Amino acid sequence: MANTLRLYLTCIRNTLDAAMCLQNFPCQEVERHNKPEVELKYVYWDQPGTSAESCRIPYCSFIKKALNVFLTFVIVLYTCMFDCCTCIFIFFFLFIMQVLICRNEAEKCLIEASINSLRISLKVKQADELENILTKKFLRFLSMRAEAFQVLRRKPVQGYDISFLITNYHCEDMQKHKLIDFIVQFMEDIDKEISELKMSMNTRGRLVATEFLKQFM
Amino acid sequence: MACFERASPSLKKILLKIYRAEKPLEIDHHLHEFGSVEYHIQSSVSNPHLAYLSISMPLLSQGDLPSYGISRYTTEMIKGISSDVVEIVEPAKAGYQLTLRLHFAKIPRNKDPVKIITDISAVQATILSSQLKEMLRKVNYDDTHQGMHKPIKLVYHTREPFYVSRQPQKIITVFPMRFKEYSDVIIATAFFQELMDVGISEKWAKAPPCCWSPIPPPELRGEPFEDLSTNGGFVTFDIAPRHIKGKRLDKAVWNLLNFYAYVKYHVKCTKGFIQRRMRKRLDSLVEVLQKPNLEEDEHTKMVQGCRRTRKWVKLPKSKFLKRKCGEFIKKIKRIRFRLKIQGFLRFRQRWLKIPKFSSSMKYTKLN
């Protein structure tokens, strides 16, 4: 494995290890509504990759500013009243932690964490057009069979090739370290598979070309 | 067109069936191949030594000029298969371009009958090849008169025309490549690159040099814009005289006619290969995720096993108490029945009597 790839994967592994502390957390707005918080987009602060249209709370810039000021005030108040940990616990669900790990411009991984869910979006490198169509074909094929993976999202996040959604239920059913291993293994395998596919396609092409030209001799 | 053999396999099979039949067969078959080629085979019980083969197919035409049917040269080529066995019926059956009368009884003993029937099955390839050969001959004649090397446009399938241009030392064949899907373009482009690389290599120096370019080659200068707008570029083959010498001519002509089909078949097979490989890979990827579940299942099974053994050894509390009480009651009953001590009866009735509890649902009748 190339040194840069190892570093990239180690970084993702460590980040996932830190981010994957998920617990059950019912919705604070709607009763009996227990959904992945990372998908609901509770955006009070400006979040990269989210737009006003996609937020559940319709707000204009004025309301946003007012909300920001109010929430800052509330947090300070809570921090004074309780210890820091309690305060973080109370407001943790408001923040969707986003970590972007880039190997280069074409290869990156976005990890979005919330209290009860974790979303991992991957962008796989595509050096040329052949790799591009192979990646698209392969990842579309996998996305269409998402039920086999349990943690795979049917539609990737905009700007990425494939996305995973891990909830607290997945963490309860499967072991945490195994899930992390799966994600890292998946990334390695996708790279390897696309390179192998490209090579075998070229080899097939060469063989077919040889057979065609042989008929003229 | 996925079949690159000159002989049609299904036609060959039927003709061999007629030839090898011990009893005369009544056959009236219609065969359709590649969407545009149609065969009609007839054989009657009344005349078992004769069979009729009619063929309808799109003929090779020069661009906008229509084809004038089967020429004399083509007729000669067909007769050349085996003059004794094959006879051209004039006029051809309605709706068909050519009808052949086949005398299977006249197949010479010194010749292989299977080979002759294979040649008859390749009648479509023979017609096409002879048409192309004739056109190439005409091109040569025109060139010598005009001194120009204007390419001729050959149309076999309406959407897939190709160009042939006669140069002093070679014949240049240009294929404008068009594909429906973007992925097909990419796969085909990769194939053309390989074709170029193989053609350049020393091992295949005798093969016709091949060139692929996204822009039209200079030979096609002046051709209409619609014909030059492609998404797969242009593939050019330089056919030298040695490639069309003697028996090679038929092969070369057939390969050039089928080049489009060859590329499309390769694209289709490659797509299938990718799909197969992806399916295989899916299983191995899922396996990684399924492993922890399997391990957990094994673990839970093991724990459940222990519980069962415990159950067998230990009895539940209620049953244990019932058993104990039952033994105690039995003991009292034994005392009651076996021991007869005078004066002890009153004591027993008062202190050792088991009280009877009346149900709330029942009632006692009062005197």
Characterization of the model:
The complex is a heterodimer of chains A (217) and B (367). Chain A is an alpha+beta fold and 217 residues long. Chain A has a domain at 1-20 and 96-216: Yope Regulator, Chain: A (2-Layer Sandwich). Chain A has helices spanning 3-19, 37-40, 61-81, 84-91, 129-144, 168-173, 176-214; strands at 97-102, 108-113, 117-123, 162-167. A 4-stranded antiparallel beta sheet of chain A has the order 1-2-3-4. In chain A, β2 and β3 form a beta hairpin. In chain A, α1 (3-19) packs antiparallel against α7 (176-214), α3 (61-81) runs antiparallel to α4 (84-91) and α5 (129-144) packs across α7 (176-214). In chain A, 27% of the residues are buried. The model of chain A is unreliable at 43-60 and 83-94 (pLDDT under 50). By secondary structure, chain B is of the alpha+beta class. Chain B folds into 2 domains: 1-140, Yope Regulator, Chain: A (2-Layer Sandwich); 142-291, Yope Regulator, Chain: A. Chain B has 10 helices and 11 strands. Chain B has helices spanning 9-20, 72-79, 113-121, 123-146, 182-200, 225-228, 248-257, 259-313, 317-338, 344-351, and strands spanning 27-33, 37-43, 50-56, 61-62, 86-88, 98-103, 152-157, 160-166, 171-176, 210-213, 234-239. The longest helix of chain B has 55 residues, at 259-313. Chain B is elongated. The model of chain B is unreliable at 303-313 (pLDDT under 50). The A-B interface holds A 129-130, 132-134, 137-138, 141-142, 145, 148-151, 173-175, 178, 181-182, 185-186, 189, 193, 197, 200-202, 204-206, 208-210, 212-217 and B 182-183, 186-187, 189-191, 193-195, 197-199, 204, 206-208, 210, 239, 243, 248, 251-252, 255, 262, 266, 269-270, 273-275, 277-278, 281-282, 284-286, 288-289, 291-293, 296. Chain B: One of its GO terms (molecular function) is actin filament binding.
